[in-house]
Amino acid sequence: MTVKTLKKIKTEIICPPKVGEIIEGTIINRAKSALYVDLGSKGIGVIYGREFFDSKASLKNLKPGDPISTKLIGLETEDGMRELSMVGANQEMTWKDLAETQEKQVTLEVTVSSANKGGLLCIINGIQGFLPTSQLLPEHFPKVEGADPARIAIELQKMVGSKIKVRIFDLNPIENKLILSEKATKKEELEEKMLKFKPGETIQGEISGVTSFGAFLIFEGGLEGLVPSSEIPEKTDLKIGQKVQAKITEIANNKIYLSLK
Question: 3-90 with 105-185: one CATH topology?
Fold first, then answer.
């Protein structure tokens, strides 16, 4: 036995495998409803029961001698083996890949699978992501008078099946939460355009959306600003497409705030 092997065994005795850990192994046998895996000094593992049938398609072409990544979900079965999950391992590695994608600010092209009044749903590597309407670029933002939720949902439904470029805005594997942003794909471009403007300046723009909390205004270079309800004069009836003049009150966190007063 080599020194390297002895060190590995010593490390694994001091730090025994834990439930939830991803473990590399080698397939040693397969039965009708179970797959047996050699985990080295960590023992013999088995994928069986529901875990086996949930992974049947992925396990179909695997044979003895093939390497496999699994997730430890039970320290010991009745037969003294480690209980393993391939589904759990795949999901954990997928979340890890998504976290790296977010960190590197990689732009992804996804297909819109469904929609509701809050935004769009897209599937990325088997994980469902949510793209809120607030993270849509102006050209895709539902332009609905009075921000009627039912009509917004109808407008968003028109995007189902279309491809859209997004970045990962936020994720939480524990909560199975994956939030996407279309705006983030233009982040650097928009930031550069924002540098041309300062609070106090007056701009000309077009109303692109009216909501219960204010109105959105598109102006030079495709920039979009928010006019909060408190900055809209009383008895002002704004319409989508209406040309207005507004004053920049604040630029913060890549957002532009405007006033019509």
Answer: yes
**246 phi and psi angles, rounded to 5 deg:** -140, 160
Q: Which CATH number fits domain 196-259: 2.40.50.140, 3.30.200.20, 3.90.230.10, 2.40.10.340?
A: 2.40.50.140
Judging by DSSP bridges, how do beta strands 127-132 and 163-172 pair with one another? unpaired
Beta strands in 7-161 (DSSP E): 22-30, 34-38, 44-48, 67-74, 82-85, 108-116, 119-124, 127-132
**Thinking of the domain 105-185, which architecture would CATH place it in?**
Beta Barrel (2.40)
Query: For 118-139, how does the pLDDT look when each residue is reduced to its tens digit (9 = 90+)?
Result: 899 999 988 899 999 888 887 7
Token reading at 102: 């977010």
What tokens were used for 25?
């192994």
**pLDDT given for residue 99 in this prediction:** 92
Q: Which residue has the tokens 């890890």?
A: 96
CATH number, span 3-90: 2.40.50.140
